[in-house]
Structure formats: C-alpha cells, structure tokens
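User:
I study polymers; will you set down one protein's sequence and backbone structure tokens?

Assistant:
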Amino acid sequence: MRTTPQLAIVLTLIATFFWGSNFQVTKFALMSLPPWTASVERFFYAVICIFIFFAWKEGINSKVLRQNWRAFIVLGAIGVAGFNGAFFVGLQSSNPVTAALIVATSPISANILEAIIKRQLPGLMRVVGMVISLLGVALVITNGELMLGRVSQIATGDIIIFMGSLGWSIYTVGTRVFIKDSTPLATTSWTMLFGAIILMFIAIFVESPMTALSSGTFESHLACLYIGIGGSTIAYLFWNMGVAIRGAGNTAIFFNFVPIFALIIQVMMGDIPSLPQWVGVAITIVGVFLGQGSITMNKLFKSI
C-alpha cells in the first residue's frame, strides 16, 4: 500500500495518540507494579519488537555498533533509562495531563540546548515559547494558585518528570551530535537495548523485580504490554513514516497533540480539570507552538 501524505498525517496522529495515552495507561501499570520494574517490562516488549523490525528493515550492522557503542550506552542511560525511569517514578504522584504538558516542552529545550552546543544564541521566539509554555505548566501544576501569587505545593513527581524531560532533550541533541553513520532506526534500537539493560540493573538494585512481576495483576501487565508495543514501537514506526513522507518540520508540529490526547482521555475517564488548569493547558500549547516556530506572534495576534 502506497503511503500518501494524507495517510502519513493519519499515521502521525495515531503515533501521538499512543504517546498521549501512555500517561494514563502507565497509571494502570503502577497499580500493582513498582516503577522501575514496570519500566523494565515495558522495554522488554519494546526491544523485542523494535529489533525484529530493525533486522527485517535494515539488517543489524555490527560496524555501526562498534563505531558508536559508547554513545549508544550513554544516550541509552540518559534518554531511555533516565527519561523512562523518571516517567514511571514521577507518575506515582504526578497527574497524567501535567506530565504530558511537561514532556511537550522538551522539543523547545532540545532546540535551545542544541543552539548552546553550537555556540549560537537561541532564537528569541524559542526562548519566549519556552517561558510561555513553562508558565502554562506552572498554572496546571498549581491549579491556578500561581495567578493568585501563592503556591502551596508542587508534586514531587512533576519535578522528577521535568528532570526526565531534560534528559530526553539531551538524548535528542546527542543523537544528532555524537552518533555517526547510523540510521534513526538503528540508533533507536541500540539505545533502547542498552537503556533497557541499565533499567534492569537499577530495578534489581532498588526493587525485587521477579517478585513484583509474579505478584502483579493482569491489568498492570496488560498496560505494560500496551505501552511497550503500542506506546513505544508502533508509535515510533508510524511517526517515522510521517517524517519520511512529509518531512521533519511538517511532522514535528503534531507532537503538540500529545498533551491534547492525554487531556481528552482524562476527561473521558471522568476526571475534569479545573478552569485554571484548562487555561494553563491552552497557554502551554500556544507556548510550544511559538517555541517550535509553528506559529508567530503576528499570526497569533491576527487570530485573536
């Protein structure tokens, strides 16, 4: 079947839906599984699926591994083990929509980080977009208390997820800067493998994964299977198909649908955000669009 631009848009939206649903589904995984163990189970499924596709699509090239193994390990530790460990640990106390909004700011921070590495001043609109989006996230986190000049408490999970999103930004930039002569699929496969191995050692050190897995409920294991196959492998493949057909720039804007899908799913589950949180969601999304260059100030004011 020929992948048309219209089909590419549909596949990209499906990918962002999977990513958006991860935040809610992870809550089910954490109902009976500790966070590091749940993360290991997720990547057990993801690594198997991605390597089957990797071997079929490109063939496993040992030369790429020999040339980049140090970078694969470091980036796997930061972007896979670090980000996903923070994701699972943080969601023990963070709200799924808040977590999705925090992660949605990572493309902007990655662009700013890349500009710093290249010793270039970050674009003004990227900085403005980051400030606006973080303001929106702060409104959601504090349930509007920020507008009243007081903040009673910020969930520890929100801080952990923010640190994880910075790790994802470092991973995103690192794959462009430190990886040589590797395809995106190969880079993802190898960093995912090494990240999963590191997650396994962490789980063994801080938890009892075998005991936890044997006592986990069917619903939690099913959630890990969903996140591993749908929320990791299929989402990545569909996203890359969109990039291949429509280009990275035209596809990147769809990443902003991740928190929107997370919000829609939360509402469908009967958890309605407060008015200040709705305002914070809108501000965050506008900030992300501005930071990624998807809209400009002139277009924004003309639309108001």
Summary: Residues 5-299 form one domain.
